[in-house]
C-alpha cells in the first residue's frame, strides 16, 4: 500500500495546485505544472 498511498498523495497535491491557481481553467493548470517542472521541486502556496 505504500506505493498506492504515495501516488495518491502526489496526485492530490498536484491536482490541488492548478485548481487553486488556475481557478478551474485548463490553460492556467498547464502554467502551474510548467512552473513546478521548471523549479524541479513542488512549491506550497
- Helix-strand string: HH
- Judged by helices, strands and strand pairing, the structural class is mainly alpha
Q: Could you give the count of β-strands?
A: 0
- State the separation between the terminal residues, measured CA to CA: 28 Å
Number of domains: 1
Mean pLDDT: 54
Report the C-alpha radius of gyration, rounded: 11 Å
* Largest sheet descriptor: none
Overall, the morphology is globular
| Proportion of residues in helical segments | over 70%
Helices, by number, come to: 2
Q: Give the percentage of residues in beta strands.
A: under 5%
List low-pLDDT spans.
none
Region (Disordered): 1-33
Protein name: Mitochodrial ribosomal protein L4
InterPro entries: Ribosomal_uL4_dom_sf (IPR023574), Ribosomal_uL4_euk/arch (IPR045240)
GO molecular function, one term: structural constituent of ribosome
Commentary on this structure:
Residues 1-33 are annotated as: Disordered. This is Mitochodrial ribosomal protein L4. InterPro entries: Ribosomal_uL4_dom_sf, Ribosomal_uL4_euk/arch. The protein is mainly alpha-helical and 45 residues long. The chain has one domain. It is 78% helix and 0% strand. The protein contains 2 helices and no strands. It has helices at 2-22, 26-39. Helix 1 (2-22) packs across helix 2. The model has no long low-confidence stretch (mean pLDDT 54).
Amino acid at each position: 500500500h505504500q506505493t498506492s498511498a504515495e501516488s495518491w498523495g502526489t496526485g492530490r497535491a498536484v491536482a490541488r495546485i492548478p485548481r487553486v491557481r488556475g481557478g478551474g481553467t485548463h490553460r492556467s493548470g498547464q502554467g502551474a505544472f510548467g512552473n513546478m517542472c521548471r523549479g524541479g521541486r513542488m512549491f506550497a502556496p
